[in-house]
């Protein structure tokens, strides 16, 4: 959820219009990239991932959104969290594209997608997701949302239903980040609420992340800055090299995101097989357990601390996450 890439070697790519047609990622980015760590089963260089392409489409309100894709077969659509982008999914794209046609949509104001001053609300992001699915001509697909990306999928279901959805995956997103004043402690815990109002959370975005975090610190920003996973260090280095985020543009959606309460959607509108992922380092475990309890036949995966079970588990342990997700999707 809390990630801002402030270093970008190719800043002009992110600020310009997204590419007009599908091209190899190396061609779109204008250079190759060597990953800092050699990880078995993952590419050593971007050019090793020959199937990876970057494409774009234009939304009904005139915004060019970039998307990353690879593979063939049943469609699997990833929706990134706040400030995130397809570059961070490079390892998951590489692994899962061997079995699926995998897509990662860069939301407006994120990744390689266009920066605009309008549409900064989850409902518009959800509409963008629907228009993306229509652009691809998807009759049905599997959808996986991480962090705020889960909220975008909940908004999609709220607005458009689940007709085009085969299976769902949600990764470590509270059901309501901000608590209502009249909620009991139990309701706050079940929803995952961590603050009484958005203001302190928005103020926290202006704080610099810890430069030397402790490996035992459960704080979300500390978990982000830890590079204790070679695969995560690779994907973060790649994202930092090819994406230049605009913090001001990113913050436009945050107030709306923080104030949404998705309990009614989670309880009444999710009628597809669902997998939920969280980890022992995350403060969201109680809300994820509650979500599993109210979604019919939902399954819950709680990664241990040794399995990199924090908010970034799918990037820190991509091999395990990909295997667990594929097992769920193929059942």
UniProtKB/TrEMBL annotation:
Does the keyword Metal-binding feature in the UniProt annotation? no
Domain AB hydrolase-1: start-end pairs = 76-323
* UniProt xrefs under Gene3D superfamilies: alpha/beta hydrolase (3.40.50.1820)
What GO terms are given for molecular function? hydrolase activity
Q: Which UniProt keywords apply?
A: Hydrolase, Signal
Among the Pfam families in the record, one is: Abhydrolase_6
User: In the UniProt record, does the keyword S-adenosyl-L-methionine occur?
Assistant: no
Q: Which GO terms describe its cellular component?
A: membrane
Q: Which residues form the signal peptide?
A: 1-22
Annotated protein name in UniProt: Alpha/beta hydrolase
The species this protein was found in: Caulobacter endophyticus
